[in-house]
Structure formats: structure tokens, C-alpha cells
Specification:
The protein has 186 residues and is mostly helical. The protein has one domain. It is 78% helix and 0% strand. Helix 2 packs across helix 6 and helix 4 runs antiparallel to helix 7. The protein is globular and about 55 Å long. It starts with 5 loop residues before the first helix and ends in a 7-residue tail after the last helix. The model has no long low-confidence stretch (mean pLDDT 81). Keywords: Membrane, Transmembrane, Transmembrane helix.
Length: 186
Amino acid sequence: MSGDLPIKNFFTRPGCLFDQLRIKSLQEDLLFFFTVVLAASILSTLGTFLLYPDHEPAGLHLIGGMVFGAFGPLQSLITWVVILLSVSLVEHFFLLFVDEHQGFERTMKSAIYALLPTVLFWWTAVILKVPYAGLLLLLCFTLITYFGVRKFHEKSKDRAAFVSLATSAVLLILFSRWISVPGFGL
């Protein structure tokens, strides 16, 4: 059973996947997260150039394209660092209500894996404006946060549910514009 693919474990036994992830160090998790962020940023930049081939860069536009191509991934990294730290702080704030003494490292690990679907598919809600894509991403975030808090912090089901729902509620309020809940937007 130890040879099962991690993605298969996530869909069949998510608790076992988080048990395997708990063994990894925070540095490995951060490296994985930033690798995914860089890959998504580069693919997004390349996708922009491929989707709009009629606007071939020439002259000064070529320089602008190269600058955007170089600084786009850097900007993406900085943005996701801020988001990761913010979400981790909000999650840890709610963990303090349920008597948390495990430290911030486990909270950061939980936030890293909870944010991965958003890193990969944020463009469906923000750019393509697919109806309820943001709400689906928030639901994924809530479920992964629940399993992360449950396994990384060894909390009971009700405490993990409180932390994941409270953190998701804060994100819903802060990012309601992109989550696309009818009647909830500002």
C-alpha cells in the first residue's frame, strides 16, 4: 500500500495522504509550492502569448514583452508569498481559539496544500469568470484545510471543522468579488 500514488490516496483515503505529507519538512513543502507557483506563472505567460498571436511584439513592444515575461513569475512569487503568509496567519489565529500549541510550521504546511488548487485554477474564476468556479475553489480550500488541520495539528473533527470554516469565511468576505456568490459581492 505504500507504493500507491499520492493523488490516488487523496481521493480514496485523504487522511493517509496527509500522514505521508506530515513527514516531509516545511522546506520541502515550500519548495514544492513555489515550484508549482512558478510553473503556473510561466504557463500563464506563455498562454497569453499563444492566445494572442496577432499582436506580434515589435520594437518597444518586444522589450515590454521580455520585461513582462521576466518579471511576471517574480511578481507571481511575491503575490503568492503574501497570500500564503496571510492565509496561514488567519488559519493560525483560529487555531488559537481551539488551544493550539503545535507551532506555526504545521499551519503553514496546511495552508500550502490548501492553496494548491487555487494556485493552479485561479484564472477560471478571475479571468474566465466561470460561474461558481471561485466558490468551488473555496470549497476545495475548506476541505483540504479541514484534513490539514486534522492531521498536521491532530485536532478533533469539530475543531478542525471550526478552523477550516472560519478561515474560509474570512476568505469569502475578503475575496467575495472573485468568488462570485450572487447577492454577496460588494
